[in-house]
Amino acid sequence: MTKRILSGIQPTSDSFHLGNYLGALKQWVELQEGNDAFYCIVDLHALTGEIEPALLRKRILTSAAQLIALGISPEKSTLFVQSHVAEHNQLGWIMECIAGFGEANRMTQFKDKSAKGGADSTRVGLFTYPMLQAADILLYQAHYVPVGEDQRQHIELTRDLATRFNSRFGETFRIPEGYILKSGAKIYDLQEPTNKMSKSSGSTAGVLEILDTPEANAKKIKSATTDAGREIKFDEKEKPGISNLLSIHSALSGQKISDLEDDFAGKGYGDFKAAVAEVVADHLRPIRDRALELLDDEQHLVQVLHAGADKARAVASATVAESYKNLGLVL
Fold it and tell me: Is 111 a catalytic residue?
């Protein structure tokens, strides 16, 4: 039986980075083979932060272009924008009405962000967005939700809400399972190689962005923090900088780390960084070119997203109708 997959990504940056690609998006591409995959740009979730409308619009389209360029096929998968399918909001309200205040208050991301910003500046949407996230999943009767380990709590809340609804109002939702993404190559910041590569870090100097020019990424790699000594050796504790560059080379070239250590035995950091820069450029150049090509024809890109939304709505509307009927709302 074909399994339905649902996952989403926020359009909160001008470009995805290498960590996004190797940590999650590469596996999204693999999961569309043999599954019924729904991939969503969750723009409504982005509204919980500061908004600059022109920039948000640009980032939504840029996210879509990059997903297609990375290998998400609109023919194989249903690729769409969350706000194009009004059923997300409709089911989100239902989830808010069956969730408990205590459950929402215990969500780690809300606690962390509200602690940093203070209660007065914390938006209600940040408190309730886990319920919208549950609706995102349950709308499509997903079997599996590919997520990182940090999203496990959200999957558990979704399962709890679906189980509660089903027990009170009749079988309506499939109980989804988290598909915790395989721990592939862990990619760290080039300047702070003990920290995960992330756009939330203070500087982008250590972040390899998919839409950066090959020259810009090469410069970042050649300026990457390295370690004492000259040996090209994988040792995350003693040589985190070189270990990170070895992981990047291996993940993109397909060569084993042990083989790379042999290849660069006796060579210096300069030679090795130049080789890493070349591998990164060769891998990302066609992805960047394709994304920019898609962005050049915005009308076509929007048409692709609207077609995806039509496919998504056909499933989502049936779920909302069933949930309304079981709640006793008059259809």
Answer: no
Judge whether 142 and 37 are in contact, CB under 8 Å. no
- What CATH number is given for 4-185+297-327 in this structure? 3.40.50.620
Domain with CATH 3.40.50.620 in the chain: 4-185+297-327
CATH 1.10.240.10 domain extents, the chain: 214-291
What CATH architecture does domain 214-291 belong to?
A: Orthogonal Bundle (1.10)
**Is 113 tagged catalytic?**
yes
Among candidate residues 196, 233, 311, 325, the one labeled active-site is 196
Which of the residues 76, 113, 186, 311 is marked catalytic?
113
The residue annotated as part of the active site, out of 3, 186, 199, 222, is 199
Chain mean position to CA 281: 22
DSSP helix/strand/coil, 32:
coil
Contact 179, 146 (CB under 8 A): yes
State the number of CA atoms in the 13 A half-sphere of 244 facing the CB: 26
pTM, entire model: 0.92
Burial of 262 (0-12, 13-18, 19+ CB in 10 A): exposed
325 included as an active-site residue: no
pLDDT per residue over 134-157, tens digit each?
A: 999 999 999 999 987 778 889 999
